[in-house]
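Form P-L/3: holo structure prediction, ligand thiamine diphosphate.
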Amino acid sequence: MNLDAPDLPDVELAERQEVQLLDPDGRYDADSPWNPELSDDTLREMYRWMVLTRRVDREMINLQRQGQLGVYPSCLGQEGAQIGAAFALGEQDWVFPQYRELGLSLYLGVPQAASAHLWRGTWGLGYDPHEFRFAPISIPIGTQALHATGFALGARLDGRSLATVACVGDGATSTGDVHAAMTFAAVMRAPTVFFIQNNRYAISVPLEKQTAAPTLAHKAIGYGMPGWRCDGNDVIATHAVVRHALERARAGEGPALVEAMTYRMEAHTTSDDPTRYRSEEELDAARLTDPILRLRRLLESRSALDEQQAEQVEQEAERMAAEVRAGIYDAPHGDPTEIFDHVYVDATGRFEQQRAQLQAELAGTEQEHR
Ligand SMILES: Cc1ncc(C[n+]2csc(CCOP(=O)(O)OP(=O)(O)O)c2C)c(N)n1
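OUTPUT (holo model):
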């Protein structure tokens, strides 16, 4: 057997260049071909959404610590990637989240107290995905990539001009479902952007143990779609790259992959102890690349954010966190039998038996409580 490497086609195996417009010190590269030339007002809005996201994220962790939520996966450190992508969405575009996309869901207006039912264990889905163009949170890793692809193809058959964003983690790119979704999307030229937030870990498994690919952006080559890598802690670069990918998808040019390099600064979820697998030094280094800090530096250097404006954003964030808190305390429980709705047009006998069994169990529990 010949184990020599075959002659590879023209595939560049060096590091794919990372698009960066705003460095950690707040310096802006206006000469970059990716410069989206956003106004100061837009940049200030991006800053506002990032601060709101961080505050509500903190609130969710606090609520879990108080026993109000069973578990919560924080997006601390990933606000730049998420708000950059959010600002690239068209009015008809849909987001198919994994479970760490608080920033995107806030931006799309999803009521957080309602979506927190999932983390509280009181309801499967407390909001209407169609109202917010934000699909149900997906815990089985990678499945949302299939939904995003199928939904995009369905929308095209319906003659609707929209693109979908499939949010996947770095770990998710190693699953069969994401492989199938990307293969299918490329062959069918689905208007789907695979938005990978590479936060370096899949729970405790670091990137180098998840894949031998030089970068995740390289994977696009194998599927036959363009792939770009950007600094995911640079909200402007992420915005520029995702916007380009979405525009070409909507124009019928097919799917694309965006790898946003970021870092999960919190634990994987509130049930995880990250000190078991990563060092304080690593975390300290990551903190220097904070996405909010660098945008604030840029805004201040342009005199586009004064003390009073910054204070207003902080106050709005406090109000939003208080609303989420009050909404969760008061949330009525959902109907558990709802999981049987919207599964089959014509339900099978076995399925109906299971529904009846759950209804009987619930009725029994109510009897016991009386
Ligand atoms: C199909 C499936 N396998 C395993 C798990 C357990 N699991 C939960 S989160 C996770 C890691 C996912 O990592 P990544 O895609 O990088 O996303 P991140 O959590 O870092 O945002 C795994 C393996 C799961 N939820 N679903």
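COMMENT: Residues 1-14 have pLDDT under 50 and may be disordered.
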